[in-house]
Amino acid sequence: MPHNFHLLILLFLCIGIFCATIFPVLCSPSPPKKENISIWKRFRKFAANFSAGLAKFVVPLIINNRSNKTQSAGVYGTLTCNGSPAEIFLGFESDDLLADGWTAQNGTFVLYGSTKEATKIVPKLNIYHDCNDTKICQRKFSIFVPLHFVNEGKIPSQFYHLGTIELSEKFPHEQRDCLH
After folding, report:
1. CA distance 98 to 120
2. CA distance linking residue 103 with residue 162, whole number of Å
3. What is the DSSP string of 33-79?
4. Domain boundaries in the chain?
5. How buried is 58 (Cβ within 10 angstroms: 0-12 exposed, 13-18 middle, 19+ buried)?
6. Cβ contacts of residue 162 below 8 Å, gap of 6+?
7. Which of 49, 82, 139, 149 is deepest in the core (most CB within 10 A)?
8. Count of CB atoms within 10 A of residue 140's CB?
9. Using CA atoms, how far apart are residues 156 and 165, in angstroms rounded to an integer?
């Protein structure tokens, strides 16, 4: 998904609100009733100011990619399967892949990465494993990194510590993944 896709949607929404509220009133074939004139005037003024103000904020963000700032996040911890170190594949992503890699022989891992975004990134760690599993494809679950661990710059100044995670358990929203 493009970096500024959500901003583009917001701009079209503002234009839609403006068109839906202003044009029908201005182009109406019959004049509004006297008791509704002041309400319509105030509403038109509010809608016009709101749309114009929002457009002034959103359009520069869409046009000017320099508004995108480099943000980074990092995570570390240990993964075990039935108490033994687990060597498994990890993916660390936001909208874009930030990093991927494998745990060490002792089950420890450190992953970090950066990307340019106009809004704050929401990184998550995807864990793919076969602990206590004989089915095809791998078990996959994700852990979101708290937003206060998102840093400005290419290298994070603080990392999210997951601690030790035992993979033999079933995790909420766990699914199977063959194509990571």
Report:
1. 14
2. 13
3. PHHHHHHHHHHHHHHHHHHHHHHHHHHHHHH-GGG-EEEEEEEEEEE
4. 5-65, 69-177
5. buried
6. 75, 76, 77, 78, 125, 143
7. 139
8. 19
9. 23
CATH of span 69-177: 2.60.40.3330
Instruction: At 28, list the tokens.
Output: 């109406």
For the record, the structure tokens of 104 come out as 């060490």
Q: Which two tokens stand for residue 156?
A: 């994070």
**Dist CA 72 CA 78 (whole Å):** 21
> What one-letter code names the amino acid at 164?
T
